[in-house]
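Structure Section — protein described below
Tokens — whole-number codes for backbone shape
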Amino acid sequence: MARVKKNLLTKGLSGMIGGTLVFRNFGDETIVSASPVHDDNTPTLKQAAQRERFSQAVAYAITQMAIPDAKAQYALMAKRKSMPSAYSVAVADFFNAPIVKSVNLSAYTGAIGDTIRLVVIDDFDVLEVSLDIINPDGSILETGKATRTPDMGTWTYIATAQNVAVKGGKVVIRAVDRPGNITSQEQAM
């Protein structure tokens, strides 16, 4: 593969020439590569699953590009990340689930109004963070949504139920991003 910048002969050139060379444009570069080789082999189960997932990502991106606000947000992120288009950011977003970076239980003693602080990030945006507080016997004490704080990626949950058995319990965190990817993580108390 060769990259050509600011060459008057290849600028804007795209497509296949002679069945052997393929020209593509990426920003202000023209990329030259050998033509792809297609085999007639049946894909493996993993390949078929990945192709289906990619088809879903493409369908998601096309849908998002039809929504002016979503397209504008993805375009802004494309500019920030120096990616070629809003569409490519949307495709990438489909493949990346949110990540729970940290769970801070230091301010949670089991009292109503205690807080649990979370840092949850995504390559684009986290839409919702919710959690369950689970008693040591496995029963759910409470379930609710955390609220986003002004700090990037920081969320706060405020307890609504008295917890008399904090030790041995756990917190189950769920984070959802725009494409609907869900990350679930448990944290022991």
